[in-house]
Amino acid sequence: MSGALSHIRVLDLSRVLAGPWAGQIFGDLGAEVIKVERPGSGDDTRHWGPPYIKDAEGNDSREAAYFQSANRNKQSLTLDFTQPEGQRLVRELVAQCDVLLENFKVGGLAAYGLDYESLKAINPRLIYCSITGFGQTGPYAKRAGYDFMIQGLGGLMSLTGRAEGEEGAGPMKVGVALTDILTGLYATVGVLAALNQREQSGVGQHLDVALLDVQVACLANQAMNYLTTGASPRRLGNAHPNIVPYQDFPSADGNFILAVGNDGQFRKFCEVAGIENLADDPRFVTNKVRVAHRAELIPLLRQATVFKTTAQWIELLEKAGVPCGPINDLQQVFADPQVQARGLRLDLPNALGSSTPQVASPLRLSATPVAYRSAPPLLGQHTDTLLQRLLGMSETQIAELREAGVI
């Protein structure tokens, strides 16, 4: 194995998306990632289909596409740690691991002696990362938390969707489980910080990462807009609360995005669009007054943009140095020449005798590049080899564990 984290071994007890996303990042960076799953069923997302990955004959397998998004570069070990023998095996594995990822309810693993306090006694160098909906403390700590719920409770949905008074107005979730993804990223950053600190102290620590905390932290400028004024920002559809014009506009054959970031770019846009008079209009001459007169400006711009196609606008505005772009569906995304040039789609051979499409990591390291060693594993694909290699178990011992339902 090679990679920036090839010296690190991760025990991934997490399921669904936030934890597995962090685990996949570690795997991409070279860490050995052991995904512990329930015998017979595994990670819930294995069954979140259709769609499913095709087998060698082109038929749907039982491997859901959802699972494939967050579990490459991992080995699957089926293990029932509700049984005492399963708990013993987890402890033996922990003794040989650097990081443990888990997203059980607060206190859920303590019943099995697999909480941080219990496991740090076995391995004081362990970095133990707990991912929950609401964190280890507070009045909501015991609650289950899911991305959709957190997008609502954490304020994101109050900012997303068409403005009040428009057709289709109302709160809207983001089209992907963004809070889960961001939580996986924050968990990864936290673990890397803890690993770095361990180099100085020699001991590990416990990370308490919560979806709600991450969601609120990522409100960014909108949070500051509220904290500065005391007024809750309102939904603006695709418009920007602080910059105008910065939204979608109709073209002759669809829609495109205009992202004017300063007064000079606004003037250039007006020149290209043949509406130079608007650049000198006292209501629109600076961003501050454009924000104040948004309702007057946007209809005027929409009247101008419908006379050219999206491709024409992009060609003209790029030459003028005005940020703009199309609104692509995913077929158009993966057909885009820049996406193809960056190699963002790849295919990995899998244990079904076919290949699994993947979206490449955005991390580009010059000395220790990301390596795509293996497709997401089948359930329990590596159980025997891991128990033999790491715990020195014989085929007979493994057979007895399987007969007892431990693996």
TrEMBL record:
Q: Which Pfam families match?
A: CoA_transf_3
Q: Which InterPro entries match?
A: CoA-transferase_III_domain (IPR050483), CoA-Trfase_fam_III (IPR003673), CoA-Trfase_III_dom3_sf (IPR044855), CoA-Trfase_III_dom_1_sf (IPR023606)
Q: Which UniProt keywords apply?
A: Transferase
| GO MF annotation terms | CoA-transferase activity
Q: Where is the signal peptide?
A: none
Record has Cytoplasm as a keyword:
no
Read off the PANTHER family from this record. SUCCINATE--HYDROXYMETHYLGLUTARATE COA-TRANSFERASE
Quote the protein name from its UniProt record.
CaiB/BaiF CoA-transferase family protein
Q: Which organism is it from?
A: Ectopseudomonas alcaliphila
Taxonomy of origin reads: Bacteria, Pseudomonadati, Pseudomonadota, Gammaproteobacteria, Pseudomonadales
